[in-house]
Amino acid sequence: MALEEGARSCLLRVRNRLEQDIKPSYLMDHMISDGVLTVDEEEKIRTQSTRKDQAVELLELLLRKDNHAYISFYNALIKEAYDDLANLLHDDLPNISPSVYKSFPDGCTPYVQTVLSEGGVPQRPVVFVSRPELVNRIREKLYRLQKEPGWVTVFGMAGSGKSVLAAEAVRHHGLIEECFPGGVHWLSIGQLDKPDLLAKIQSLCFRLEQSLDSQSLQRPPNSLDEAKERLRFLMLRRYPRSLLILDDIWDSTVLKALDIHCRILLTTRNRSLTDSVSGSPLVVSLIGALLKDKPNRWRYYLCQLQQKQFKRIRKSSSYDYDALDQAMAASIEVLPDEHRDLYKDLTVLEKDIKIPAKVLSVLWDMEPEEVEDILEEFVNKSLLYVDSNNKPYLYYLHDLQLDFLVEQNRNELESLHTKVVRQYQQHYKDGHPTSGDDECLYWIRFLTYHMAKANLSQELYALMFSLDWVNIKAQIMGPAHLINDYVEYGPILDKENSEVRSHFQEFLSLNGHQLEQRPFPDVVQLALSEPHNSEVYRQALVKAQEGASRGKLYIDWLNKSSVESLSLLVIHPHQGSIYSACFSHDGTKIASCGASKMLKVFKSKSGEKLMEIQAHDEEVLCCAFSPDDRLLATCSSDKKVKVWNVERAMLLRVFEEEHEEQVNHCQFTNTTRRLLLATCSNDKFLNVKLWNLNKPSSQNTVFGHFEPVNHCCFSPDDNFLSTSSNDGTVKLFQVSSANEWKTINVREMFTESDEEVLVKCSTWTADGKRIICAARNDVWVFDVETSDMLLEIRTNRLSMVQYCHACPTSNLLAIAYSNYAVELWDLGSNKKMADCSGHLSWVQRVQFSPDGSQLLSCSDDQTVRLWETKKVHTSSAVCLKRDSDVLFTDEEIIVSAADNCNRLQVRDGRKGSVMFQSEEKSSRIRCTCMCRQLSAVVLGQEDGTVQVLEVPSGRLLATLLGHTKTVLHCQFSQNGQTLITSSEDTTIRVWRWQSGECKVLQGHKEQVRCFSLLSKSPTETTLLSWSFDGTVKVWDIDSGEKLQDIEAHREAILSCHVSPDGCFFATTSADKMIKLWCCKSWQCIYTLSGHQDCVRSCRFSWDSQRLATGDDNGQIRLWSVKDGSLLKICSRDGKDGMDSLHGGWVTDLHFSPDDSLLVSTGGYIKWWNVDKGEALQTFFPTGSALKKIHVSPDFSTFVTIDNIGILYILQRLM
């Protein structure tokens, strides 16, 4: 049967939308179980390289299939919460003739699946016991409702399977078609008070009204009586001959509220409510299993169960269910003695955990095949369940069976867990498993759990205070599981050594984002960056020294004591910028969203992921928890606002019609007293809206702004809403009326400038008396009543304020900046209290936890960082700029660089002491160099000034004036008598600096960023310069004569290097090309192509036989100088989350003296085996974007500065 034309047209019409949104892997499981998709077809789809390609292939296949496939696809969309996409297909659902239904077992046709999915009827559970006799009895009763309304009741104890029976009874085509053509509508009740019951009925009414025309939509009922009447009207007039299923009724008052004279099926555990249909699937399966082997023993087992008085095992249990205990005990009693003891061992399993036979093979010290035979016996007796969809099979206990075992063996729990640990230790005495299969995953995940339950404290200490264990578990399970272990077992570990526990927990918390990278980083190398007094560092140093003795390369950070990490936890939840992150109101969860279009929720203590949803079609700009943490709202560039159920990860509402531009911000009211959601957008006029979630359209549109609104925020008492706009104002609106109360004109605060003022955000102080707003690089505090400006916080002129948030419990204000910083200010004293450094790109959002103890920040660097409010403080460490010079001697490492106060510093790198510090300069210092012979240091400034200072006295030796723009590079000649500088003014100046004599080398048309002397000999006077104008020029610095003028590249030259033998030089360019030149003929001998991005760095090997080049995509290539051939490509594998092979541009390269090793800098530092092109080691700095690395002559010491000003003195361990 071919696909109907209407359905085909619909698929083609919405195809692009489906391809953008769906995850085929989720949908195909349902379609395979419906029999419309084969395993081979699934495999063909899965082989496509991207999610979108898989979606394209699935839709192509669907267009070639029949109506059943279309309906199955529609049902799969509903089951996976793609409600908006399913709605697009709904109107064109095909009609299937009744004759076709015969091919479906039990009459469960696509039509039935559609009706039940739309009505919210639960799917059949994975562990399903068929009870046709009971199902048919219920159906028989339901058929009696064909002609008139009435009630059918299913009664049973907790765990008896009432809900499954009710759902199974209506899973029948004939029943629905004949009796309930209006549909089947499921409502889960449970224990409810009146407000919750009203909310349930409101939700059902909303669901029923959603399928009707928009004119039928009404405001939600405000009382139970009104709700009852609305539901009665809908069921009798709009959905006649439909069935309402009320699941798990506890109280007769609920029945009264829902007595609306329609057709109702209810389930209850309260016999007094009505007559019953009962039975337990577990007891049925257990007794059935006993009779399978001995069918003539029915009377014996019945008598045994009726007469034998079992002691009540679970006195504290909520299950009043003697039959289960009796059936379990009877089933266990007929096991052979040796198997009975083996079954007892299953008591140690965790609920909902499936295990392979190999785990029990270790526990029981048996061959896997023998174990499988025993497990098959347990399965046959319904004492165990098997997941045969997995290969190898996985086994598990029902929760009730596990409860029975735990209570029966409560006094032996410790010894049973001890047995698990001892058997594991015996089996894996040579080392932990690392295969990554199901058995390995079980042991790595639960070994600590078994040790804790066995009270094996010493074994737990030894395991969790081991870097080997951290390495294995982080690699197999990820860092979040490890952090959870240190949190969960902290009370046990702290008895041994709380300081060591905190060392390991802090190491994982601050390096978790690195441990999620692939390829997996070297944990020992990461641990070498820990403080010297850390147990983690001590263990890493021992391992690194052992590894170094075997030839492995490890790097120690010598001066790390000068750097203190203030972050509490670093999480890497998204690929792409993170635009918003927020705490739940109980502080236990964090939600984040951003450029990845995903919404994620994770634990605030460990970063363990709890939920992940593709939330929108475009970037998600904001997310916010409701005050009870049950809901999450998101808004996006796709102009939609969505509301999600957090616990079920399910979409509840989509508001997509009213905002016509991107929605910038969303926020719920602070209390549930009157729950509203506020949103604001880039719309010109209708840009602020208030939503009642029970209404399909906005409750109010707030008028006042005529430019985009960036942010909206409720006052602490929810009486007012503040809005921040590109029109330069903050407006306060009364929430009850949506009327404007007052306007605060922030634009007037910037009297000295005519530039537009965009107000980024606003935040209320805890008492609601002050409102704080951010615009440009300023933060302003206003009195709410008078609109008077109380305080101005003026920040760094070079950065913009991105966001600010007032602490709900103190006078602190957190500010996020575009210069990667987060600051804490005290509003009372107007003093900066803390610098929180660590982010590597713009910080987009900050928020205090509800109790004010923590602060989170999120950034374009793809991380969320948590800070402990009390521990962060104003940093006394001076940040250095990346333009630097280093002198290596036998005893000393001397570093010169400008600091963040625009002073020049000269430091002893080993000791960390400051040898010299200049006064603060009025013009920014842009370059520096040192002269070994004269103990002098040079600084070049943005205003073109060059100064020579004596070290360490600081005496000014010379001021050299001549450059008219920024001095970009400076270098002494070998004897120190000549100083050469280059500038943005396109000139090079050669100074006899002691006399002030100067020669100007003119000819370049754009800035000259660097140059090189062609020989280190004091008598050689030839200089090579290169420029953004694409030319290389050769000069005689004595005469100032230009010797050569070479048109080298079409675009800017980014680097140039002269070979050590002086025969060649290489140039690299933004045109992605490398050129190799002969110094004798000045001719290009080879043009090397292959890089896919700007080639930013190059370096010859010391034997001048090889050339290394690095590009802006992080790729490094090694070339033969002899014939220009490509020898190796480094970094081909291991692309990281920063979408670069090196964490950024490759900015510098250096060979070791024997040319066997290569070091490169980018987002981090890597060392390479030159012959193999393989990475040997990676050092991750705290910051990123390293400009250059200084290397000692023996290749043992490496010095660099990152983009947040941290100096690294790194030494190779030998």
TrEMBL record:
Residues 3-92 form the CARD domain. Pfam families: APAF1_C (PF17908), CARD (PF00619), NB-ARC (PF00931), WD40 (PF00400), WHD_APAF1 (PF21296). InterPro entries: Apaf-1, APAF1_C, CARD, DEATH-like_dom_sf, NB-ARC, P-loop_NTPase, WD40/YVTN_repeat-like_dom_sf, WD40_PAC1. Its main location: cytoplasm. It is found in: Cytoplasm. GO terms for molecular function: ADP binding; ATP binding. WD repeats lie at residues 613-654, 702-743, 836-877, 960-1001, 1001-1045, 1046-1077, 1088-1129. SUPFAM superfamilies: DEATH domain, P-loop containing nucleoside triphosphate hydrolases, WD40 repeat-like. The keyword Nucleus does not apply. Keywords: Apoptosis, ATP-binding, Cytoplasm, Nucleotide-binding, Repeat, WD repeat. GO terms for biological process: apoptotic signaling pathway; regulation of apoptotic process. The keyword Transmembrane does not apply. Gene3D superfamilies: 1.25.40.370, Death Domain, Fas, P-loop containing nucleotide triphosphate hydrolases, Winged helix-like DNA-binding domain superfamily/Winged helix DNA-binding domain, YVTN repeat-like/Quinoprotein amine dehydrogenase. GO terms for cellular component: apoptosome. CDD domains: WD40 (cd00200). Monomer. Oligomerizes upon binding of cytochrome c and dATP. Oligomeric Apaf-1 mediates the cytochrome c-dependent autocatalytic activation of pro-caspase-9 (Apaf-3), leading to the activation of caspase-3 and apoptosis. This activation requires ATP. This is Apoptotic protease-activating factor 1. It comes from Sphaeramia orbicularis (orbiculate cardinalfish). The gene is apaf1.
